[in-house]
Amino acid sequence: DYQSRLQEAAAFMREHDDFLIISHVNPDGDTTGSALAAALMLEQLGKSYVIVNEGETPGKFGFLPRFHKLYNLAESPIERTFTHVIAVDAADSKRMGDVTHLFANDVQILNIDHHPTNDEFGRFNVIRTDAAATAEIMYELMVAGKFTCNAELATCIYTGLLTDTGGFRYSNTSSFVMQIAAEMLQYGVKPGDIAEQCLEEITWEHVQILRHALQSLQLSFDNRVALLKVHASDLEETGASMEDAGGLVNYARNMKGVEVGVSLCEPVPGVIKVSLRSRQDIDVSQIAKSLGGGGHAKAAGCTLQSSMEEAEKIVLAKLGEVLGVD
Ligand code: 5GP
Ligand code: MN
Ligand code: MN
Questions:
Q1: From the alpha carbon of 115, which atom of ligand 1 is closest?
Q2: Where are the alpha helices (DSSP H) in the chain?
Q3: CB of 112 closer than 6 A to ligand 1?
Q4: Which of 129, 216, 256, 311 has the largest CB neighbor count within 10 A?
């Protein structure tokens, strides 16, 4: 059962050494907070670890403890392999990114995640799909493994909870989430500072790319779907990064009467990052999954190797099916 999975995970950490911790591609607050929480727990056991992401982790998470220990593999390649791996908040092995060259032949992966689309790719899998965040499972692991909570560990856990619940607003905000959050505050977490860094502060480039995105916003299927686009040329013109373009999909989703908000972002020509957000009944994880991605019922995504025009056709066709219109 689930409790024995948590015990297995704690034993995995206690019985081995020299770990590789992996956060998922396009890292968010949950995967980053959970990865750093795993690092802090390993430190308590006197274990060594290397913590990596395929690419860059947004600087807004720079307040998290041990953030400076996170390797950006695109910039700082690692030339050795690991046997003991901990992947956090990654729904499938693809979400770990380009990391397989770091795996020894006898690699054992501990897969800790909360996505309903998780395919249990690990040797050990601690999956609870009704957890609001992987950070919620990290809290349970902390308790099950008898780790010591302190301000640093509490900050990592709180940040994952805060970001994956959209600031304690989404429907995954359970009583348990609020109880953990309250307990983390007792360890000295600064909620105002963390919310400011993770949720409130926006860059100049974000506002510039927002102009382009709003210009492109269009309604389909009787205003039930709102879709916006960010072309590679928009990013180039404004100097905005994909990080600066984060959160734009909410402008599509939040409009009164809209059921599904979509953003299509083109980091480089020929690659389209699709974000899907549902307000009510439509399960967008199934749409994302059918396009090679995954996620949650109300927030999901995938990446298409196509032109912007093709991506728009493909996504709208899927939505048409699900909405029962054509
Ligand atoms: P976002 O639109 O913010 O990138 O992602 C929303 C949700 O969908 C997140 O929970 C994220 O983990 C999931 N997601 C986004 N892209 C992918 C993907 O390519 N594969 C999978 N499995 N999940 C994704
Ligand atoms: Mn995530
Ligand atoms: Mn998550």
A1: 10
A2: 2-15, 29-44, 134-144, 151-164, 175-186, 191-195, 204-216, 232-238, 249-253, 284-290, 308-323
A3: no
A4: 311
Q: Residue 213: CB within 6 Å of ligand 1?
A: no
* pTM for this predicted structure: 0.96
Over residues 116-126, the mean pLDDT reads: 97
| pLDDT value, residue 95 | 97
Measured in Å, residue 145 CA sits from the centre of ligand 1 at 29
> Would the CB of 300 count as within 6 Å of ligand 1?
yes
Task: Encode pLDDT of 295-316 as tens digits.
Answer: 999 999 999 999 999 999 999 9
Is the CB of residue 275 below 6 angstroms from any atom belonging to ligand 1?
Answer: yes
C-alpha of residue 323 to centroid of ligand 3, in Å: 26
Q: Which atom of ligand 1 is nearest to the CA of 300?
A: 8
Tokens for 183, please give them: 């307990």
Task: Say if residues 253 and 214 touch (Cβ distance below 8 Å).
Answer: no
Chain center to CA of 186 = 26
Ligand nearest the Cα of residue 296 is 1
Domains of the chain: 2-200 (3.90.1640.10), 204-323 (3.10.310.30)
Q: Among residues 245, 244, 240, 241, which one has the least CA distance to residue 228? A: 245
ipTM confidence score? 0.97
pLDDT tens sequence across 45-99: 999 999 999 999 999 999 999 999 999 999 999 999 999 999 999 999 999 999 9
